[in-house]
Amino acid sequence: MGSSMDISVVIPFFNGEQFFEECIQSVLRQSHAAKEIVIINDSPSPESVKFLSQYENNAKIIHLDCNHGISVARNIGIANCKSDWIAFLDNDDVWVDDKLEKQVNYLKNNPSREACHTGTESFSKDRVIETYLDKPLLLDMEGALLISHVLPSSFMVKKTAIEAAGLFDPKASGSEDRELTIQLIKNGVKIGFLSEVLVRFRREGHGFFSSQWKQKFKSHMYVFIKHLGQFRKYKLVRRHLNWIFGHAGYRSTGIISFFFRGLARLFR
Q1: Which residues share a beta bridge with 121?
Q2: CB atoms near residue 113 (< 10 Å)
Q3: How far apart, in whole angstroms, are the C-alpha atoms of residue 207 and residue 148?
Q4: Rounded to an integer, what distance in angstroms lies between the CA atom of residue 31 and that of residue 14?
Q5: What is the DSSP letter of 197?
Q6: What domains are there in the chain, each with its CATH number?
Q7: Strand 94-95, strand 156-158: pairing
Q8: What is the CA radius of gyration of the chain?
Q9: How many CB atoms lie within 10 A of CB 262?
Q10: Is 43:13 a contact under the CB 8 Å cutoff?
C-alpha cells in the first residue's frame, strides 16, 4: 500500500446547493488526489440536474429517479466506484486539505486495518462548536454497540470489506453509520482512528427538532433488535434500552416524553 493508493469519493447529494461548492472544492484540493468522485443526486429535479452539470468534468454524476434516502444513495455510489478504497463525504461537510494523504499514510503504517476514521469538528458559519478527538484508537464491538463513533464524512474503508458487510442498511436510517460499523467489526474488520481534526461538519440546518424523535427511535430500536445477540453477549441490553428510551424522552414532548423517561428509569 503505497502512494499510488486509489480512492473513490462518494458524495450523496440532497438539496445541497447552498454549501456544495465548498464541499467539492475540499476534495479537489486534496494533497493526495482522489482517483474519482461519484456524486449521487438523491433529489432529482430539473434544478438539481442543472446545478450538478457544472461538475461533470470533475465527477461522475448519477441522477436517481426519486428520493431513496442517504443509505441507498451511498450504496449506489459504492457500486459505481472503481477504486479499492472508498471515502465518504456528505454534501455540506468539508475536508482539511491533507485528509486523504494522512489516512493513506495511516493505513500504510497499520496494514491490518481495513478502515479508518479521523477526528472531526462541528462548525456553524466561521465558529467552531465542538471538537471530537477522544475516541478509541481501535474500535471494538462494545464501543460500536454503545455509540456512533464514526462520522461518515471521515470514514475510509476497503471496498471489499464494506461489500462483505452488506453496505449501509436503509432500514437503519438515522443510525446507518453505527449499524455498519457493528457489522464490519462482526466481520472481523479493524477500524482505526486517526486522532487529528481532518473533517469539519456543518451544524446549520441540523437542529435537534422534536419532530425527528420518531425516526430516531425507530432506527435505534431496529439496530438494537438486529444485533440483539451482540448486545446480550456484551451484557449491554439494559444499558442500551435505558439510552434508547432516554433519548426518545429527551427529544419528544408532553405525555410521550414523560412515558419514555419512565421507561428509561426502568432500565437503569
Answers
A1: 131, 200
A2: 20
A3: 18
A4: 27
A5: E
A6: 7-202 (3.90.550.10), 210-266 (no CATH)
A7: unpaired
A8: 19
A9: 11
A10: yes
Q: How many residues does the chain have?
A: 268
Residue 58 contacts residue 37 (beta carbons within 8 Å): yes
Which pLDDT score, from 0 to 100, does residue 154 have? Answer: 98
Distance CA 210, CA 107 (A): 40
- What gap in Å lies between CA 247 and CA 215, rounded to an integer? 12
pLDDT in tens, 7-59: 999 999 999 999 999 999 999 999 999 999 999 999 879 999 999 999 999 99
CA distances from residue 50 to 64, 92, 93, 234, 247 in whole angstroms, order as listed: 14, 18, 21, 50, 40
The answer to whether 40 and 74 have CB atoms below 8 angstroms apart is: yes
Confidence of residue 241 (pLDDT cuts 50, 70, 90): very high
